[in-house]
Amino acid sequence: MEQKELLKGLFDEVQLLSEPGSEIQVYIGDETPVQTMKDCSVVTANYVLGDGLRGTIGIIGPKRMDYEKVVGTLRTLVSQLNETFNK
User: Fold this and answer.
1) What is the pTM of this model?
2) Could you identify which of 42, 70, 74, 83 might form a hypothetical disulfide with 27, taking C-beta atoms 3.0 to 4.6 angstroms apart as the criterion?
3) SS3 state at 48
4) CATH for the stretch 4-86
5) 47 CA to centre of own chain
6) Is 86 helix (H, G, I), strand (E, B) or coil?
7) Banded pLDDT at 3 (limits 50, 70, 90)
8) What CA–CA distance (Å, rounded) separates 46 from 22?
């Protein structure tokens, strides 16, 4: 967490690697695009807020996390972002 550029690079790379239309991406251990984070899991969600404004949000945690809960949380957050933006 101390290396903000590393995290920014992670989310930039995740955004580039994700398939169009894919909402949630899960990277576990060695699947993580940043090799220094191979002992972690990264769950990300891409969002688009009109006029081409795009972003990625994510949760970084241990390999043994509650993935169902994490994915649900990210889906809710993306939904709330869309709802807030469209008001």
Assistant:
1) 0.74
2) 42
3) strand
4) 3.30.450.40
5) 10
6) helix
7) low
8) 8
